[in-house]
Amino acid sequence: MRTNELLNNFEKYNFLTIEDIAENLDISLRTAQNELNLLRDIASGYTIEYSDLLGYFLNINDPVKYAELRKKYKQIIELNYDDRKKVILGTLLLNFDYITVFELCKKVQVSDSQVRKILKEISNTLLQYRLVMVCKAHYGFKINGDFSDRMHVLVNLLHSSDKCIQAILGFLFTPKQYDDIHVKLVCISTAYKWSIDDHQAKTIIDWLIILKQMQKNINDNHKLKKEQLLYQIIGAYYDLSNVPKDAFIWFEDALSVLLKCSLNNLSYQDVCCLINNFLTTKITENLRIIKNDKEFIRLLSLHTVFMLDRLYKNIHVWNPYAKNLSQTCPIAFIQAVLLAKEIENKYHLKVNVEEIGLLAMHIANAIEQANRCRNEQVYHIGIVCPLGGGVSEWIRRQLCHIFERAKIKNFALAQMDELKKFKPDLIFSITTLTVNFKCPIIKLDDENINFFRKNEVNNYLEQITFFAQTTDFWHLFYKESFQVIDECTDYNSLLEQRALVMEQLQKQKGYAKSLMEREKYLSTIYQNGIAIPHPLEMHGQYNRIDVSILPKGIKGGSTSPIIIFMIGLKANDLYMHQLISKYLVRLSQNKYSVEKLVKVKNFKEFIHVLKLSLQD
User: Fold this and answer.
1) Which residues contact residue 16 at a Cβ distance below 8 angstroms, ignoring those fewer than 6 apart?
2) What tens digit of pLDDT does each residue of 322-339 get?
């Protein structure tokens, strides 16, 4: 808001029209009206009145209050756009309740429309940090998400802001307070036999600055106990009657890891180095995107430190999600197994399956986050209608609610050249197209023209994405890699036998050994007798699925597989592995389809029934 400039104009010219304000301040008529409205909203000691003949004028009815207001706004430094964005982001992160647009307007002194524009940009930015902006009518805006993610953004904001922004957000300690807390940290680290350097002290004080400002905005009282570290460091200097419940837990964990982890000579920095090295050199090429996620590395390192502590102390954790995760997100589970092997080699201990499952959960979350950011890209969507017009416009409006960031454009049949120049990623068409396009085309008719519900469109696009991963999905299956075994056989012997065949066909040395090693961690036998065995590492020359039908099952074993899909892929096709597993797991949940598949007698029948099953 241009408060000082506008008040100066009123004092200088006495009467101003909206046109005068726009010209003097070099802004649009609409912005000029918004600035005038805001000036009325903050009125203290004056009113803005209107004359039909001369325009708006300033009426000072309380000179003392007006003088105080002028003094206050003369001290305010005008913020640029990026500064306002930081102030609004910091204000929302430091508060846990809703904040109205009006309150934010007062904070950064700009119009309602400017604040809403900034809020929209912040909402998109927050996605990469696993945070979500929530809007509630008549209440305002707030940010939801994990406390550690909130702290991560606030620390970055603190470091990237100048003293002006820090002062507005309250991110300041006096030199004496800073020195006192530094001394206190040294005393506590000595008592706890921790080592601490200046960099670590600076990091901790940054956390305390944020927590001090954050606790002012908490309604939920949580009294600190004197034995808690947060109280020992800062409680003597500030009344921390309100502390976020998650804050003191996060602080205790983060502090204990940052200062020193004396777990059998284990250090946090050593773990960070191991994980960074793994993500840089060991992890598969098409997952390298997660190595740049610093918060993921911090959380995974923190988890690994405490995991090692549990393993050294022989503390066993139960993880009911490990098996499910190995089925639904095999990429994450495989990478977790490979990371566990690195940890075992360095620290000479055995990482059990439950702990591997917990590592996999961290990796799966990072992969999901990377996928979400990738899916936030801007799509080009074309809509084809014989004549353009009303129907295509209705479809466009529906799609705008589903693909909020997409560029969506209508085309008539006579505009196919323009559609090609548009380079669409997806086409919706009411009529059959005679021109070929290198993108999925969804044909709309009387039955499906009303299917514009987000979940249905996403399901359809998910199928398109799956089948677009390879030139022809069905070329993963080969007649020579299909067999019906009519006699009851031993499962492990059969796996080893088929894996050796796959090793030769895929030209991947060590395929069989790697597959059998993977089976030692968790069985790949899923529901209704579907098994999807795969090696820990895939670097074959081809993509292939070996299929074994076992109508009579196997010898012994509590779970009896009846169909085995053995996967072999090229080194950079692990996302294909994820998608194949997803669809085969879905197949395993359809008992009727599995029963039909196990009755097939030859390869041709198998492909036909499988296609029908995947289309269900």
Assistant:
1) 9, 10, 24, 55, 56, 57
2) 888 888 888 889 889 999
